[in-house]
Amino acid sequence: MIGAGPAGLAAAAMLQRRGVEVVVLERTAHVGASWRARYDALRLNSVRWISSLPGLALDREVGRFVRRDDFVAYLEAYAAGHRIDVRHGVSVDRLDPAPAGWRVRTSEGEWRAGAVVVATGYDHTPVIPSWPGRASFEGEFMHAASYRNPEPYAARDVLVVGAGSTGAEVALDLALGGARRVLLSVRTPPNLFPRQWLGVPLQAFSLLKRGHADPDGPSTRAVDALGGLAQRLIHGARATHLLGRAPLGIASAAAKCGRTPVFVDGLLEAITTGAIEVVGAVESLAGPDVVLAGGRRVRPGAVIAATGYRHGLESLVGHLGVLDERGSPRAQRGAEAAPGLAFIGYRLPHLGHMPADARRIGRRVAHGLAARGPEALPISRNQP
Question: Where are the alpha helices (DSSP H) in 22-132?
């Protein structure tokens, strides 16, 4: 197992339940490292019962939408409760097939195993567009992965680039936390929802069938229509007026672009009151200025790029032909990408599908190892 986030821990627990020996290699000193590093105000967009991993439910006391620190504590309890063998401080560089198994090249030498499950995380490698002039920009510049809280930005002008869930929440956190002026740069208007409406958690839209086999098929069009109707009922014309109209419906955006709806509370209200100003897409950076679409120039003291992530799987498995053109695993839903090789945590929404995928991996990988019998490589490590 590679990665001790929620996906890796869930798959490890389900494999152990079937009697498979599991060692989890984790490059950091803690389980759930990517969650620990996110901004302080983070809450899960998925409701508590969707966010629980198989074999241990999140406690009702953490609330309907779980805070970052509560989720990290839950992951620690999950790993301890299932007695998962996590080897910290071990980074994995490359996987290669071996007779009856896999060679795993790591910072601590080569490991061998009959099967490998990759769970390095959906949001693994921050992406920053190659805007002209970025290297010489005179203001503070960072990716949203490095943002923690609004305290350093009190009484400052901040430009947040990107209107996905992270960008929207960071902009709102800054506006509520004392930034003097918050600009939100929007290139592609999102499908926007509150976390819940009339007491109903709305992430259910992300779990609807999205028609991956036919992105333009009738099931995709039906979910697009349902999502559009829901947005009109919730927001009226406000979202389109303030942010623009999303170019794709919720199912089409997921199938064609891997883009999920944005679930955030209070964004439209903050825009309406002027606490957040929506501006155009970033075209370039010029000294102390940021040049927006249409030629407008703004001069923020800080730019926070909420411009997404890549899976970062190319160096690990890119040579195996198991990734698609976007760098995502071709095999999803717990299926093996090759004999004894599976991926988990690369589907949207991440937590919504994780329990089912972990159970499938437990079943399929355990069956494959049993079918190979004594020929399957046991877990072993060669010192560097």
Answer: 33-36, 48-51, 68-81
Segment 223-234, tens digit of pLDDT: 889 888 989 999
Please give the residue range of the domain that contains residue 342.
6-124+311-382
Whether 1 is in a domain gets the answer no
Whether residues 157 and 111 share a domain: the answer is no
Decide: 305 and 281 in contact? Cβ < 8 Å: no
343, 353 in Cβ contact below 8 A? no
Percentage of the chain with pLDDT > 90? Answer: 74
Query: In this structure, are 264 and 340 located in the same domain?
Result: no
What letter would DSSP give residue 307?
-
- Pairwise pLDDT comparison (205 vs 259), residue with the higher score: 259
pLDDT in tens, 187-229: 999 999 998 888 877 776 556 544 444 566 678 888 889 888 9
**Per-state percent for the chain, helix, strand, coil, to nearest 5:** 35, 25, 40
pLDDT at 372 over 80: yes
The predicted pLDDT at position 349 comes to 64
Residues 101 and 148 in one domain: no
Q: 285 and 137: one domain?
A: yes
Average pLDDT over residues 278-301: 96
Q: What is the DSSP string of 3-51?
A: --SHHHHHHHHHHHHTT----EEESSSSTTHHHHTS-TT-B-SS-HHHH
Number of domains in the chain: 2
Both tokens of residue 360? 């499938």
DSSP 103: E
| Residue-wise DSSP of 161-178 | E--SHHHHHHHHHHHHTT
Same domain, residue pair 12 and 67: yes
Task: Record the pTM.
Answer: 0.90
* CATH number for position 47: 3.50.50.60
Q: How far apart are CA 343 and CA 334, in angstroms?
A: 7
Q: Are residues 186 and 278 in the same domain?
A: yes
